[in-house]
Amino acid sequence: MKTSPAVYGLIAEFEDPTSLVTAAHRARHEGYRRMDAYSPFPIEELHEALGAHPTRLPLIVLIGGLCGCVGGYALQYWASAIAYPINVAGKPLHSWPAFIPVTFECTILVAALSAVLGMLALNGLPMPYHPVFNVPRFALASRNRFFLCIEAGDSKFDLEETRRFLETLNPREVTTVSD
Amino acid sequence: MAASHRSQGTPPVIAPGHTFSTVTDKISAIVLARKTPIGWYAGFAAAFALTLLLLVSLTYLVLKGIGIWGNNIPIGWAFDLTNFVWWIGIGHAGTLISAILLLLRQTWRTSINRFAEAMTLFAVACASIFPLFHTGRPWLAYWLLPYPNTMNVWPQFRSPIVWDVFAVSTYATVSLLFWFIGLIPDLATLRDRSQSKTGRIIYGMLAMGWRGSAHHWHRYETAYLLLAGLATPLVVSVHTVVSFDFAISILPGWHTTIFPPYFVAGAIYSGFAMVLTLAIPIRAVYQLEDFITMRHLQNMAKVMLVTGLIVAYGYMTEAFIAWYSADKYEGFVPINRMTRSSGRSDCSCRCCSCSCASCR
User: What ipTM was predicted for this assembly?
Assistant: First the structure.
């Protein structure tokens, strides 16, 4: 790193989503890797423009759903056939068709919980403090402005040079983000 | 707010002349800037008075027992089950709008999904009152849950009532998650726009540090889509399980396979009616005509027309099967309902609901 540790990175502000996507493409082309873009609503192309990997979330949800499914069925089998075997209307103790609704509900419940908790965990939320919040105009990232931040941790990062590069992308302004 | 932006591409969904910022400003102003109107206090007072009435009634119910509902036979449900089914049904429209319409890529849903989801949460909360108090000893309701206990007993998993416990509690949890996940980016918008310190702290804690990062949005969208995919079969299953409460019994007139689809259609029918009942005054009071447009109202009316006709078809099938079964007990039930004095009101209710659906 060529800069003092007090700098988190450089952030450029754009007025519309298209400029942000173009800027992200250009920055990646230029060789920058550690960067993030911020927008008030999801932009599909942006994730790819930043060169990120597909998320593991669907796998987490699948595993959660399978755990719920097996766990729900096992609970019913154990409770009805082993722990508390009572004769109900002459039905067999392991009356599997009657166990399907609860098994289904448990599958959905655990899968949904893993989707939400998995998303929050992979995103590192809750995170009350983040350096980008130090930029006063960043409050507009949830309204109508679009930001691209190149982080100081990037091997190619240089305070002067990166700033000059960001200026060529036609941003509204470029700000230094203090850590 | 974030959700509303997504529908910018198709003009009829939102009135012309809006940009990203005007949508955000107008909607967040309702929460942050607008002075609470006197009418709000009047509405709150009326709702509060009715809530007090509920508390008085529930206290009387706990003191005297469920016999005050005229329910004195141990296998009967009547009043409370009717209410339970109705409230659960109301909730279904919220999930349908948030989950099924998302999967079908109906972008118009974004103007109405949040409050429809909130309506679902309140409807499920209302619904859960009835089975809990029907037990007569609501403080022992946790006996319905499977947990290791000193009595060494476990729930009877072959009973639809236990299926109900799982279906409704899962439904309530998933609805809450769906609603809250959808709310996180909007809470971040409110945090960034709030003028007061208290507002910033409260919204900031609820938004959990959301900053609209592209990586976050990607996982967020994946999670939201997966939740919709999970909630879609869930919403169908919940009212199916509720209908099993009746259909699993061997009572003539109730032991029938049409119940699950017929209950689900009825739920969506009444649920959309409730969404409209709430949406029309809300859009007038908060001047949201630009965001909840005639197109939304029309689409919702169409959904009601279709589901209303399915319900009418269900009624007709019920009567037809009663005759076609050649079972004299099955055949007796509809005749008895149509000719008995208390049955006549039931019959006219059904006719009204069928003709309402087809006139619309």
Answer: 0.87
